[in-house]
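Late entry, written up from scratch paper. The run itself happened at the end of the previous shift, but nothing got recorded in the book at the time, so transcribing now.
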Amino acid sequence: MRYIFFVLFLVSFNAVTAQPDSLYFKAKAEKIIRPEWKQSNKLSVDLNQATFVNWNAGGSNTISALFGYEFAYNYSDRYFFWKNNLVANYGVNGQQGREPRKTADLIDFNSNFGFSSDENSHWFYSARFNFKTQFANGYKYPNTDKPISRFMAPGYLFFGGGMEYGRNIDEVSFYLSPITLKATFVMDDALANSGAFGVTPAVFDVDGNVITPGRNSRTEAGILMTNEYEMEIAKNIIAKNLLSLYSDYINNFGNIDVDWRVNFDFKVNSFVRATLESHIKYDDDIKTTVPSTVVEGEFDEAGAKVQWKQFLGIGFAVDF
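Output as recorded:
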């Protein structure tokens, strides 16, 4: 599977770099001369709803809502870039006859600093910082007694430096960092003791008592490659691709962690929009479990699996 993902990345990068004058590559006509800071804010609400009254085919009343906030504060001049953005969202689904369930939960902060001594070059030296976690507890529904994730359990931090292609280009970016630090935080003792999210688990005695507590963090050093581009595939329809590949040098080098999002934004007017999103993840450190064939009620660890999430919603977005 690692080689399949690597080939997908190369094909994606070659597709957007093969035609530098195409739709993907729209360089800015004017050069940036004066130092400039730009700030943007965006609030959004996406809704899905279904109601049944005396519907002979059956069905359950449902309502889903996804609340989002995006903030960006960017600086640019002839030689420097400093881009900062925060993305936060939280989604919940309510269905008749059962408890509300979480559908989305994300805190994602990025900071990217770049420098180039040639103002006409599309390449520049870059340093990147990324931090991700979530707001609330996550559960394996319908079991809501035992959280499988919490705020800062997990939390992910990436920090590294390398080269980036995309200076003065609005639609594309390719980033390669040969040295990137990845830190995984599990700031919950129960989850850390179980070895969740790849941290070192606790050592237990025969009675189940903790001898050595589990680690609350895991540090890796590896190579990071990212590719993102956007294009207008039709009037008022914007597609955006974001792909991230990471491989640790020390632990199983060649096992590639994948984070791949494809978003389609359908603009109805200045406020109303529709969104279609596909999100694929693969992390070799996140193992799945299967029911034990030996002890009833117990679970055995299985291998990592591809995770996939899809979202379709219609809602409102306000820029300010």
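The chain has two helices and 16 strands.
(Scratch paper discarded after transcription.)
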